[in-house]
Input
Amino acid sequence: MSLAPIGIHPATHITQDPSTMDTEALEHLNLTVADLDATLAFLQAALPTWQVRGEGRLDWHGKAIRWLHVGTPSCYIALQGGGEGEAPDWTGHAIGARHAGLRVPSLDAVVQRLALAGHAVDHPGGTHPHRRSVYYTLPGALQFEFVEYLSDDPAQRNDYAR
Output
């Protein structure tokens, strides 16, 4: 098994803010998708400040695949192309991820940008006075939830009793 990267192209213009390196945080999520370019276009339409941090090709257990990292200086989604089969059914009960939740400053702006890119909301999130969300399901990829918080108070944002 060879996992040595082939043709890595790191992004040299992205720098990490050293003040964020001393706290625990989700650094990245790795997703295997059927169509790498379509998933990248979707994410960059929704989150236009996200950049490709690095990309390349590698042999993944006998299959040549293309990969890339897209995100911010402090977090990213690792996308791995060459996915096979069906994406998980978010309504099912199989073990595995249901969706990736991404915090955004303006849910309306995300919905508008994705509509212009040809994507329709799959379904809205629940009703809550301190947050709003919508879900999008891409063929051959994980479902994505975009969340806008309407409060700076963590107790209000994380109130699940409503």
In short: The CA atoms of residues 55 and 68 lie 4 Å apart. Residues 36-46 form the longest helix (11 residues).
